[in-house]
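Bug #2210: token dump truncated for VWA containing CoxE family protein?
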Amino acid sequence: MMCPESLPHAAQPFLDFARLLRRHAFTIAPEQVTSFMQAVTLLGPRSMNDIREAALSTLAPSPDRRNEFEAHFRSYFYGDAKPSVEGEEDETRIKDDRGEEESRTVRQENGGELSSALEQLSNRDFQREPDDLASFRRRLGSALPVRRSFRTARARSRGILDLRRSLSEIVSADGDIPAPLLRRRRTISRKLLLLIDVSGSMKLHTADYLKLAHAAVQGADRAEVFTFGTRLTRITMALRIRDRGQALARAAALVDDWDGGTRMGPTLLAFLSVPRFSAFARGAAIVILSDALERGDHADLETAMRRLSARAFRVSLATPLAGDPRFRPATAALRAILPVLDDLVDGSSLKSLTDFILSLARAAPAAETIWKRV
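Reproduced locally. Full output below:
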């Protein structure tokens, strides 16, 4: 987004309006804000309707949030009463380990017995233990799914003609025609994105999940780790510290919502609303470590999972509940997201999780297909 110091004073209200929309979970990229201000400049503007039309065409609110967008526009530019958003007092805080913190307004939901949306801030202390994840860390780099890069490397066979180098060789050899020189597109590992539920219902498993995340960040070329409960926190930078005890202590200090409530749907939507974060999901293997006990209405969770699935190479849910042989995806939330999941697997132990992550490169039937057979 443009630097505020470089903007004319008259442009500041338009930048602040875009920030207002982002605080209310509208997905707006920096390029859209720039286009909005350029559109206002081109239109004059001669009236407030010109500004409204410029905002609608460049900031592009989704049809289901058009009325909310209009209410925010009138509140900001006309001074109308602030639009009432159900559950506005609850906000999903987004904390980056670079020291940045934002908030996203989320819906207050009713119902739910095993999970809660009440925010309970606390810290956690991780004690050092023997490194039983060394094998996983060593194998992970070569076990992740790969994709073809747009960059090329020299090849001896099965490549395309490197015309520039071949012509250079011909010139340097005074017109003789040597063997053609070839290039081949490189293959690189896909990103690994871990989203870890740290709510109270996952209290028995989060310590193991953080150790797994540290091993993944150390072993993979590109891995990103976020925690979520009532807030969303990026802890990747903390986990890049080689010493596990120091890394987990730093991560524990960053996360404020240990053992609190659960807002899985809104926090995932908040993740997707930040362009820099949602870019981590593009083409990635995403593993969500959660029991998926979403409270009340699961519409936000279903929406978020569909958007993640559209961006990602593979979306997997590892739930500790699946460690029970009697487990079935019978809750309304799990039934809703099952069609978009590639995997629904056991997340009750480090052994099952490491085995699954190391198998991500292998094709498998979709989760819905497997669980319909059970």
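Output looks complete on our side. The longest helix spans residues 30-43. Marking as cannot-reproduce; reopen if the truncation happens again.
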